Structures are given as structure tokens and as C-alpha cells.
Amino acid sequence: MEVYNALGHGFLEVVYKDALEIVFTEDAVPYERGKEYQVYFRGKLLKHLFYVDFVVYNKIILEVKCNTEITDEHIAKTINYLKVSGNRLALLINFGRGKLEYKRLIY
């Protein structure tokens, strides 16, 4: 991936998000950054909102991490984002290792 090849690993997540936003804008990829989703329980809106890093092409959730590994917690959170959003596909990308790591999640 261009962003990882240019920046490598070790930066904060926000750096990679900013770089991805430049790529999406310059390559005319439709996206929303920090999209929020509401959660309901028993027909009532909960106070907490979910904020996903990116929604690309209005259907793919892109979650950015910068950790030593992708954990079960990262996967569970991303699956919850899929449930709440109604989307079916997510990419969980980890820039925190010596090699780019990613998982494709389908719900």
C-alpha cells in the first residue's frame, strides 16, 4: 500500500488516517472520515455513538490501527461497526508492524 511504503511503521494512527485521506481525495475515491452511527436498544437511542475511521464507496468500513498486532478486540469492534452500519465488508489495517497487516471482515 502506498501509504505504508511511504511512511513505514511507527507513527500515530492519525498520521496514517491523514495520509489515506490525501490518497482518497487525489484518487477520487468516495469516502467519509469519522462517520458516526447511532445504536438503538429496545427502540431507544443509546447515548454512545460509534465512529468509524472511514467508509469508502459508501459500503466498505476501513479501520486503521497502529499496534504490534491486530487483536481479537480490534476484530470484535470492527464487526460491531458492521452490525451497526448495515455494511457487510470491513478492512482492518494495522500500520504498527514492520510489515503491513490487514484483515478482511465480512458480516
UniProtKB/TrEMBL annotation:
Any Pfam family hit: PDDEXK_3
Highest taxon of source: Bacteria
Name of the protein: GxxExxY protein
Species of the source: Dyadobacter jejuensis
